[in-house]
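Record NADH-dependent butanol dehydrogenase A, 392 aa.
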Amino acid sequence: MNDFNYYAPTKVVFGKGAEQKVGNLIKEQNCKKVLIHYGSGSARRSGLLDRIEAIFDKEGITYVELGGVVPNPRLSLVYEGIALCKKENVDFILAVGGGSVIDSAKAIGYGVANEGDVWDFFDFKRKPTACLPIGVVLTIAAAGSEMSGSCVITKEDGGMKRGCTTDYSRLKFAVLDPELTMTLPPYQTACGCTDILMHTMERYFNHGENMELTDGISEALMRTVIRNAKILVKEPENYDARAEVMWAGSLSHNGLTGCGTDGGDWATHKLEHELGGMFDVAHGAGLAAIWGSWARYVCGERIERFVQFAEHVMGVEPQETEQKTAEAGIAAMEDFYREIHMPTSLTELGIAPTEEQIKELAEKCNAAVRGNLGKVKHLDVEDMIAIYTAAK
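=>
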């Protein structure tokens, strides 16, 4: 077991109609002006923004708004948000949406609270020393950004998707109402379930010692998401299934499932970030498309871990050899992805990168991680090319 620090300061308000408490939550922050930050229109069409605005108007909370966040949130809108916050003297940001909106809010918070170009924090040139306080009314169970310190932004120029992780951006509160996720398209729900799973799987697949308790929590979380994702394919308005998935999303990325480990692998995430930057694919779908190829490429380096995953999570019976058990577990996971209509290859994802593009993806990924990718197996550029190629 490794030493660890566990820090989860976000206040969670969970349940039906929880968004009705957002006025009191904002008042607890003693802020003067709020930026309401949201996506491309669903929050408005659903009436959620209208309800939040009515609460703010009733409580006398002053606010301005900025919409337009898209999946793989863009740096250009972050710049717009920074300028708006400075002009309007905003001192709190309320994200209304999912992980993309939260990440955009975090980047805006960094840009307002620190001098210079905010992209420097994502391009490894310097580190932020502060962030505007942020809260969220969550509408998508997926990224877990509501309880993590991570933030990922896409710079349109060059198609670069990069992350910045600090505790400064951890949210003050997160309002989680599973009913708000019931109108999501099935594909978006499935992408979210995949992302939740991968946040735990990235930590679960490591090359260090493990805590029995952390493993047990991780395995239970993964089984829970798999079981309820299948339910939501047939019953998208099943409240209990929505609630299980939503809470799993927060626990999967708040550090809990990494306690006592070496931090996890994260290669699949980094490889997918480059796919998102180049082809603008949905993050969860990109993860599903590449995970199997990564797993088969590296499983021999930590075969006992893949065997444990196969048996404890996927319910695979022991095979003649550990290798066959591990491969059966990987195949079972891909079968699950197909069952919830997620891709298991780049072709199924709808992209067909050329050899030149695959080389560019690998080189960009290697630059983004500064030559340090993977814990199960360290991956160099040639390894990355091999995984991308196998995923085609």
